[in-house]
Amino acid sequence: MAANKSERLFLPINGLGHYEPEDYKQFCKETPIPRAALPEYFFNCQPGQRFIPPMLWLGWNMGSEADLTAFLLKYDPELVSLKPTGGLTDASLFNLCYALYERFDISGEMAELLEMSPIRDEHGEDVWALTVSCNYTSDCLSDDLIEKIGKDIGKGEPSWWLDQTNWYWQPGPHTQAARLAEQGEILITPHLP
Description:
- The protein is α+β, with helices and mostly antiparallel strands and 193 residues long.
- The protein has a domain of 115 residues.
- Helices cover 27% and strands 18% of the residues.
- The chain has 6 helices and 7 strands; from the N terminus they run αβββαααββαββα.
- The longest helix has 14 residues.
- The chain starts with 22 loop residues before the first helix and ends in an 11-residue tail after the last helix.
């Protein structure tokens, strides 16, 4: 976690108020964050806020595409659909979710919460996660369903993971900081040198 308890997680490292493109690699070392340990300020994602926190997903790290393929082949080989050139088809990514919808009778709005999401693991690698919530919404699958799914996939309690692209604090869209950033007067988001 942050070196100082009052310091917010995932703020720019360089002290200049903006991010460098590779900063996420350092931030990923702070993950996974246990389910109950995500600081409250990560849930304040209203557009009028001066800064909106990074997007974090609550779920289970399923690993790289190769790891996910190995998991699916073990879990239920019928869920696997490979491209002629190798690798999982997009359908395979969602087949696990569909199987879990059926197995646990998940439908409607609750089904929209259970998805495969691209995250960054603790090493900064792009991987897949089976997710049940996001800090940008107050909706989450029930504790009972989360426990059942965790047991079913052999993963236990879910954790919070950084989103693959929205891993940094951003100015709220209706703020002075956003207007200044749009005009190029301040630099906040990651930039290429």
